[in-house]
Specification:
Blueprint: E1 3-7, H1 22-39, H2 44-49, E2 52-63, E3 73-79, E4 88-96, E5 102-114, E6 119-121, H3 125-131, E7 154-159, H4 175-181, H5 186-191, E8 196-201, E9 210-217, E10 221-228, E11 233-240
Antiparallel strand pairs: 1-3, 2-5, 2-8, 3-4, 4-5, 5-6, 7-9, 8-11, 9-10, 10-11
Length: about 240
């Protein structure tokens, strides 16, 4: 089952350069996914309130062109056919312009999580059938493990706020982008020429956590790592330049 919708970006979706912000891109994609879930009779917030939550494990984003103000987004999303012993599921999301030119392709990977026991759950066949998974893929995924760099050039300490949290009580997955941008060198931030990104979530961050954000840059990428004060690596964000 492919869900399609048209989204007209709000003024708050744009950054200082008049382009759709990276955080807005993730939020728009997440909302389209939730609309698809509703069609599959899978109420995400209701499930979370009952103690079973879809939790993001990874984002992969490829950007062909960042939309400018005034452009409507034609969004298509579907769930990939998983393996028989599925503990993860991949969603494909495509954003196109009015001429159906590709703008952005996204692939979030989800796990089903028991909030009480903090354990991963097997995704039932019945639940997957409701989504009517598709065999097509909007892009191939790189299964290479994203690793923490050996050295960093910059480091910042950030304090999380109540308003940064999502309905599961964790730092909202898209909020990592705005926080990671704080750690980038000024010239990379100002250039704003990102070709894509990859985010791997390992340990959730919660309200009142003090977070250490460190950045390492190379010619074609910038890697930002989020760690707790005790050294626990929580999330890695890799910007493709």
């Amino acid at each position: 089952m492919i869900h399609e919708e048209i989204y007209e970006p709000r003024i708050s979706d744009y950054n200082k350069n008049g382009m759709l912000s990276l955080e807005a891109i993730l939020e728009i994609a997440e909302n389209a996914g939730s609309h698809h879930a509703t069609k599959a009779n899978d109420d995400i917030i209701e499930g979370s309130q009952k103690g079973i939550a879809w939790v993001l494990a990874e984002w992969v984003v490829k950007i062909e062109r960042r939309p400018h103000s005034g452009e409507k987004l034609h969004i298509s999303t579907w769930t990939r056919n998983p393996s028989l012993s599925a503990t993860t599921v991949v969603r494909d999301i495509v954003m196109q312009d009015s001429d159906k030119n590709y703008l952005i392709r996204l692939c979030p990977t989800f796990v089903l999580f028991d909030l009480a026991t903090h354990r991963l759950l097997r995704i039932s066949t019945e639940l997957l059938k409701n989504y009517k998974p598709e065999d097509n893929e909007c892009m191939a995924l790189d299964n290479t493990r994203l690793r923490e760099p050996a050295t960093f050039e910059t480091e910042k300490i950030l304090h999380l706020r109540r308003t940064d949290m999502d309905f599961n009580g964790h730092l909202h997955n898209a909020r990592y982008i705005s926080l990671a941008l704080e750690a980038l060198p000024q010239q990379i931030y100002d250039a704003d020429q990102f070709k894509g990104l990859r985010i791997v979530y390992r340990v959730p961050l919660n309200y009142d956590d003090t977070v250490i954000v460190r950045c390492h840059t190379e010619e074609d990428k910038a890697v930002v790592c989020f760690s707790k004060q005790d050294g626990t690596l929580c999330t890695i964000v890799e910007f493709h330049l």
